[in-house]
Specification:
By secondary structure, the chain is mostly helical. The chain has one domain (2-86). It is 78% helix and 0% strand. It is built from three helices and no strands. The chain is elongated and about 85 Å long. The chain crosses the membrane at residues 44-65. Keywords: Membrane, Transmembrane, Transmembrane helix.
Length: 88
């Protein structure tokens, strides 16, 4: 009977270790230290800068295509290439 009790205790211990190993880490911003917060803010700053540049590029292409009255993709592409070479 003693072996059975010891076996149940070992099983419970193994289950507890398995649950701890499978527990998902928490990435809550409240748990980050100041250096980690600065790194996360820097990463988001880079993402925002890239998104702003892409948005500006799309706006310029849309402007050129509307000014040159390009209505298809190929016409728009040709208008953008020609616009920087000498206009529509």
């Amino acid at each position: 009977m003693s072996a059975l009790v010891r076996s149940e205790h070992a099983f419970e211990s193994d289950v507890a270790e398995l649950e701890a190993a499978l527990a998902l880490p928490s990435f809550s911003p409240a748990l980050l230290d100041e250096d980690a917060e600065a790194a996360v803010e820097a990463d988001w700053g880079i993402v925002a800068a890239v998104a702003a540049l892409l948005g500006l590029a799309i706006a310029v292409v849309a402007y050129i295509c509307s000014v040159c009255e390009a209505r298809s993709f190929d016409a728009c592409r040709d208008a953008v290439v020609n616009y920087f070479g000498g206009g529509c």
